[in-house]
Every structure is written in C-alpha cells, then in structure tokens.
Amino acid sequence: MALSMEEQRILAEIEQELARSEPALAARLAAFGRPGRAALLRSARSPRVLVVASLVALVLLTVLPVVVYALVSLRGLPRTVPVRHPAVSAQHLTSVPR
User: Fold this and answer.
1) pTM value?
2) Cα end-to-end span (Å), the chain
3) DSSP letter assigned to residue 27
4) How far is residue 90's CA from residue 85's CA, in Å, rounded to a whole number?
C-alpha cells in the first residue's frame, strides 16, 4: 500500500530531523535499505556459478577426508632409523690402516 503525499512529507521530515540530531544512528538505519552480501550472492545464481560451486564442494568433500585419513594413519607408524650405506661395513670402520 502506497503512502499518501502527506504521509510521505511527514516521513521525510522525520528522516531529516533524525539525520540532523543523530547522524550516526541515521547512517546505520540507512544501511538497511542497501543490498548486502546475501543479496549479491542471491543475484549471482547463474547455472555456471552453481556448477562450479558444486564441483568445488565435491572436490573438497572427497579430497579433504582422504588427506586427513592419510595423515592420521601415518601418525601411528614408528619412526625409522637411518640406514647405512651397504658399501660401508662395520669391519671397515673399525679397522685402522697400517
């Protein structure tokens, strides 16, 4: 239902008085009329955006659990000791050349 001219005039006077007396409050209340991030996201619902977002979600939902599972399973393995080179034997290290 549209406002009458008199009601629009009264509303404009109230708005001007509020802006004059409480500019910070008027600025915060004016933000309600502006489209926010949610409105921008709703307007960007093209089929291409939905397909790309679905594929990204699918990749994240499949790759992330596999990586977490691999890290958790590798965490329980014992740490390995360094392996010596096979050409260097213990006998060769203990003998002193004469």
Assistant:
1) 0.34
2) 111
3) H
4) 11
